[in-house]
Amino acid sequence: MDTNVAGTDGKLQPTTVLLVNPNTNRGTTAMMVDLATETLAPQGFHVVGITAAAGPSMIVDPVSLAESEVHVREAVHGYLSGPDGERVTAVIIAAIGDPGRARLDAELGIPVIGIGQGSVHAAAHGPDGSTRRFGMATSTPLLVDALAKLVADHGFQEHFTGVRLTQSEPLALAADPEWQFQELAQAVASATEADRAEAVIIAGGPLSATARRLAGVTAVDIIQPIPSACQLVVTALRQE
In angstroms, rounded to a whole number, what is the distance separating the alpha carbons of residues 183 and 175? Predict the structure, then answer.
């Protein structure tokens, strides 16, 4: 399938969005590609997913988050230097800590968007564009400081109500989607009732399926990382 279209000069124009999963779980990559496709396909984009060649199956601590930057850059540069590289019009870094995003954004001449970046921007702004209070719900307690830094890096710390955590550890919840849903729902409730958050980010790429489920049954605005990043991709490309 040719995912490019011809421009006015007759040359093929890139229409592929490359989604890189910093975790090594290929099942997670496929799930996130499916979610990104729902948003981007109607806009005329084809989503290709790639998976980091090394590292943990799920990033759960600052060390693995930092180490994944090398694997993310290798994966992206490897794809872009291949036969389909010229088709890529944007890159999505599909881990909430956005490992490697800033450096890739400086190296490449195309938009590089992180799902953490997309989530924070979506959470901080209400439907009318005004800023609002927002929090996060996640299963990775060792990444709390990294998540707070992510919010600060994008300038929204004064609107941030903090991170609410699941009671069980992340890999156990990853193996039981229903358990994961129940504990994240409780974390969302704490963020809204105790912290008065008006929106809650489900902070984690591997939590994307649960984020979608919560969005369908929760009154508060649930921010889903993958669709949020996709919307920033579309916005960035329209501004070019």
Answer: 13
